[in-house]
Specification:
By secondary structure, the chain is mainly beta. Helix content is 7%, strand content 53%.
Length: 293
């Protein structure tokens, strides 16, 4: 439950249990909660936020509307993920969040730019050290213990621009990018780009579609290197068919060049070193249905 109250036409506050999955939203690429856009998370949001920004957590935020084209939020949330837990028991550390959206019109067609920043402090973000099982697994597979920083930061951007038409029927391009300190997020940087649109002429006005590619840069940490986790790239295309206003079917195809190159387990005592090859690239084909009641 979240309570929101505007104190003027240009300023408001909200507090309670906040869901951050609606942030970093892009009109063509979607968001983490999207059900009718891309399926791969690398296309729907910036994975650099992993480890710094929880999905569900208690917090308070301010809402700014300085002009009709600018919307900004700024606030503080607990750094611990509280989904599935009592949120009042998940209060180790604090994360500062801010996100600003600017809408604009270029040559008569609309677009939007979004810029966000988060800084987590006063918490060993993944708390690996609190559970000896993680330390034991790390020692066995890598010969090293897991280390993360008490503070972490992330910066992300996304934008879209219509080339023809608008949200009622048109198409354009999008770009998404992010960078983090890599502690504790396993993703150091990400980028996604492509084209998308709403409608396919007058005969399919309520369909939407997209095609694009993405790349994820792994944090250069000894643990990830020993586990064979490297950079990942991929391609995806989808077409969302509006069978009826309450019934949508989405066809989707992905090609993923896996980030897992293999696991290298060092020699431990009399046990020899072991190299386990990683998976190769893969094609993923799927169909989703969405019923709106």
């Amino acid at each position: 439950m979240t309570y929101a109250q505007f104190l003027s036409e240009k300023f408001g506050v909200a507090l309670g249990l906040i869901n951050t999955a609606d942030g970093d939203k892009n009109e063509f690429a979607g968001s983490l909660r999207s059900r009718s856009h891309f399926m791969n998370a690398g296309m729907r949001f910036s994975p650099v936020v992993l480890g710094t920004v929880p999905v569900t957590t208690l917090g308070v935020t301010a809402i700014f509307l300085p002009t009709k084209n600018i919307v900004g939020t700024m606030g503080f949330v607990n750094s611990e993920e509280s989904a599935g837990y009592n949120p009042f028991d998940r209060d180790k550390g604090t994360t500062f969040l801010t996100e600003w959206q600017i809408s604009h019109t270029i040559f008569g067609v609309t677009g939007k730019q979004t810029l966000g920043f988060a800084y987590g402090f006063d918490r060993n973000s993944l708390d690996f050290g609190a559970d000896p099982r993680f330390q034991l697994a790390s020692l066995v597979t890598t010969g090293e213990t897991v280390r993360t920083n008490a503070d972490s930061w992330v910066l992300y951007y996304n934008g879209h621009q219509y080339i023809q038409g608008d949200a009622e029927g048109g198409w354009g391009h999008f770009l998404r990018a992010g960078v983090s300190d890599g502690h504790p997020s396993p993703v150091k940087w990400n980028v996604a780009f492509g084209v998308g649109g709403v409608g396919m002429g007058s005969w399919r006005p309520n369909d939407n579609w997209g095609i694009g590619g993405y790349a994820l840069g792994a944090s250069n940490e000894p643990l990830l290197n020993r586990l064979g986790i490297n950079d990942e790239t991929g391609f995806e295309a989808f077409y969302n068919i509006a069978v009826a206003p309450w019934f949508h079917v989405t066809a989707d195809v992905q090609h993923v060049d896996s980030a897992i190159t293999g696991v290298n387990i060092p020699a431990i005592g009399p046990l020899p070193a072991v190299n386990i090859p990683g998976p190769k690239d893969a094609w993923v084909v799927g169909v989703r249905t969405n019923l709106n009641f």
